[in-house]
Design goal:
InterPro entries: DUF6529. This protein is mainly alpha-helical. It has one domain. Helix content is about 75%, strand content about 0%. Helix 1 packs antiparallel against helix 4 and helix 2 runs antiparallel to helix 5. The longest helix has 30 residues. The mean pLDDT is about 90.
Length: about 180
């Protein structure tokens, strides 16, 4: 294998490997640590589940903004493609989306742990690990300007897909089971 081939492979393999390692470590931690069952509730909400459902819904809406702004950044939205505010919108909506997930993941990791007693809960636990692993891979990909052009959209799509899956297996389930409550 030539040096150029090794360099090209490492530009893809390093961020993806580190992201995969983060996903595995989160899953192991969540599975091996004893769940506390203790949760912090925010004022104005009826339950911790309600807080989690609404924060995940906020992250989901911001992920839709991420998708649209990414399409504009890559030249797929016609008149929005050349707008100077698209880049900052993409960065800040992404930061806000991840920030909205932090209280949720803290509760899931510490209070609940990795659960697998029901298919929905197992898929949700796996998607939570996948989402943060994909997020780490995306952040590492952003720091590399010499990577292949397909890598950033691929890991960005993985982050988006993970968050959509998390929303479907948590917030949508919560709202259809218990109704839209605060």
């Amino acid at each position: 294998m030539s040096t150029a081939t090794i360099g090209a492979t490492s530009r893809v393999a390093i961020p993806l490997s580190i992201g995969a390692a983060v996903a595995v470590v989160l899953g192991l931690y969540a599975r091996l640590h004893e769940p506390t069952g203790v949760a912090v509730n925010l004022a104005g909400f009826s339950s911790t589940q309600s807080v989690k459902a609404w924060l995940a819904s906020l992250a989901f809406v911001l992920a839709l903004v991420q998708l649209m702004s990414a399409l504009a950044l890559f030249g797929h939205l016609g008149p929005l493609n050349s707008r100077s505010w698209i880049g900052p919108l993409h960065r800040w909506s992404g930061r806000a989306a991840v920030a909205a997930t932090l209280p949720v993941v803290a509760h899931c990791l510490y209070a609940l742990g990795f659960q697998y007693d029901q298919p929905r809960v197992l898929i949700h636990s796996l998607l939570g690990c996948f989402f943060y692993g994909a997020f780490v891979a995306k952040m590492l990909t952003l720091t590399r300007t010499d990577g292949p052009r397909w890598l950033l959209p691929a890991v960005g799509g993985a982050v988006f897909a993970g968050l959509v899956g998390l929303w479907l297996t948590s917030s949508l389930w919560f709202f259809t089971t218990f109704g839209i409550i605060r």
